Amino acid sequence: MESQLRNDLHGSSPGLYVFCLYYDMCLAMSLLQVLLVFAKEDSQSNGFCWACEKANFRCSMARTPESALECFLEKHHDLVIIDHRHSRHFDAEALCRSIRAVNSSENTVIVAVVKRYVISFFLFRYVENANMMACYNELLQLEHGEVRAQFKLRAGNAIFTALEQSQEAIEITSEDQVIQYVNPAYESIMGYQQGELIGKEIIEVPKSEKNKPDLLETINSCIRKGKEWQGIYYAKKKNGDSIQQNVKITPVIGQGGKIRHYVSINRPLNDNNKVRCVSSCVFFSPDIQSSKHKDRRKGSLDVRSTTSRGSDGSSQRRHSSMARIHSMTIEAPITKVINIINAAQESSPMPVAEALDRVLEILRTTELYSPQLGTKDEDPHTNDLVGGLMTDGLRRLSGNEYIFSTKQPHHLPSHLTTPLSLNDIPPRIAQTMENEDSWDFDIFNLEAATLKRPLTYLGLKIFSRFGVCEFLNCPEATLRSWLQVIEANYHSSNSYHNSTHAADVLHATAYFLCKERVKQSLDPIDEVAALIAATVHDVDHPGRTNSFLCNAGSELAILYNDTAVLESHHAALAFQITTRDDKCNIFKNIERNEYRTLRQAIIDMVLATEMTKHFEHVNKFVNSINKPLAALEENGGNNDEESVKSILTSPENRILVKRMLIKCADISNPCRPQELCIEWAGRISEEYFAQTDEEKRQGLPVVMPVFDRNTCSIPKSQISFIDYFITDMFDAWDAFADLPNLMQHLDNNFKYWKGLDERKLHSLRPPPE
């Protein structure tokens, strides 16, 4: 109690995470209980009352310290807000001490409302602001931050009770791999007593010789990224016997986004549970304590499933692909089911194996791949990115709805009404585009040379290189007009989502289409669809996220039912623009069925850029393409052209390849050369800053609070984005398309951001020496 009181009064950071588990608690929180202590009713107390009602919190009001303490003893509130602005009414610090003297207050969060010029010794302070939305946002931040953390601590007793009663052997170790806890079931199965293990390092416990020599290396390559690994492991009991177990390795991410504990749950493998792999265990080599990304490519296993490419380096990359493919950890529950079925097939009679093949075929072609997001949301940067990019945000409208009008598409400016010819491109611009087939092509040089019209010029050259006019049977003049009107409908005022981004995605798409494995998979109509989809994928983007539009009650959000709002708009508007005028209708001369096929492919690819289904698309690609190709190579069938072709060219897999291609092209910035990567990072950050500014002005929920231009760490945001979205996706795409130069850029850029972050720098570049 005393230490907690000191934390409240002196501002020292409380030891919130002494509890050995950092789980994203699944225990349901009851309605939040809030106690407001204000001597008099005023606009500030009314603001918090309104905010509690809006957030559906249970609110009590007390006017005196005595009534406040009485009320607290009765209801044991989660959050207490004390008016500390007027010391003449009552002593706020004395009231805090009185509340902290109550045993049940251990996990209560106490906040003081203070004036700007008053120095307060409370840990949590709210500077006087009677704006109702400011009070509401403060309550939401407290609920999702400190209150939830205290709830986890309060739930600790329940968690440990469950551990003690569990029939599975459970072991918890510290970040330094020192054993902190084993439950009675562990003692019974392994033959050790608690006192023999607590305080020992995990490496001191004897290991079985029956495990494969490279198993620990495989495990480490996986868990260094803070992810789970599942498989079979032999443990050695105290009496020396080896026991075969189902194993799932779970590093637990805690404060600062670092691994803080490892949780182990062991179940012996026997005839009754060979298929029910529900246990988990943790075994780590000493180097796990190193940074998650120290030598991250060097130490990780590759997902590639390619045939020989003729060099020792390629051979080594292929050699590691098998273990990497089978230890891919972007596992949704359905992925685990598929792995279990695969294991069961090995010992099943032919009719059963064939039936299971049919089951797998069904599972791989339905919407079952969304993963269970792990503990990474402990990191506020990752949490905000996930919340901002993968959800529709808080749908609580303020009354100040931000309306995007359903406006007519832009027409071409008068000086662009004469279509530009490929032969008319000025020499300076043509020279800028000479190396457009290289991954290191500088799109910003083209942006400057074309006066912010790079999409038209680059589109002319790339579409010509791929023979798009010939395929569509349309004159070059029609294509030129189409490119110009599409570019006119991108917003040059956006710092990121403008026509330069569209040109960049088009460039990446064209680069990927030239990779051998991609060419083997796609038909000409797929290539044309991919190039068109890349060109239009963000047309008329307002520079705000889907979450913002939903929160603001925009007309687009209403039109598309808060679902894939922007992506649906981009696809629909692209076809409206294209078909309304014969002068730019590039589809005018193709046969109806071919148009339907092309249209469907374009729409599907544009919708695939929506981030809520990011993990679903990546999971499907890994399980339906990467792993089958890897299995062929593993079984010596990499030269079986028919088997490879059947995987690459099936209609379902061609769709997956196209989705993965445009997704990788859309968010490939971290894989670009460093200077380009830094420029893109600055532009997207500025766009998010502008959104946060507008949310505050409009009184809307702030979707990504870390993107405050005054406090944001751009390096941290880039590290989180790479960790959460980029690494697994490009590992899988690299395994398919063979992209060593991109992966090298990714490594270099990650190390660059990590270096800035370690120096506590928040900017894009280090200060000059």
TrEMBL record:
This is Phosphodiesterase. Its EC number is 3.1.4.-. Zn(2+) 1 binds at residues 501, 537-538, 666. Hydrolyzes the second messenger cAMP, which is a key regulator of many important physiological processes. May be involved in maintaining basal levels of the cyclic nucleotide and/or in the cAMP regulation of germ cell development. Binding to RAF1 reduces RAF1 'Ser-259' inhibitory-phosphorylation and stimulates RAF1-dependent EGF-activated ERK-signaling. Protects against cell death induced by hydrogen peroxide and staurosporine. Belongs to the cyclic nucleotide phosphodiesterase family. PDE8 subfamily. It holds the Pfam family PDEase_I. Coiled coil: none annotated. Interacts with RAF1. The interaction promotes RAF1 activity. Pathway: Purine metabolism; 3',5'-cyclic AMP degradation; AMP from 3',5'-cyclic AMP: step 1/1. The lineage of its organism: Eukaryota, Metazoa, Chordata, Craniata, Vertebrata. Its cofactor is a divalent metal cation. Signal peptide: none annotated. AMP binds at residues 497-501, 538, 666, 718. Residues 291-324 are annotated as: Disordered. Keywords: cAMP, Hydrolase, Metal-binding, Phosphoprotein. Binds 2 divalent metal cations per subunit. Site 1 may preferentially bind zinc ions, while site 2 has a preference for magnesium and/or manganese ions.
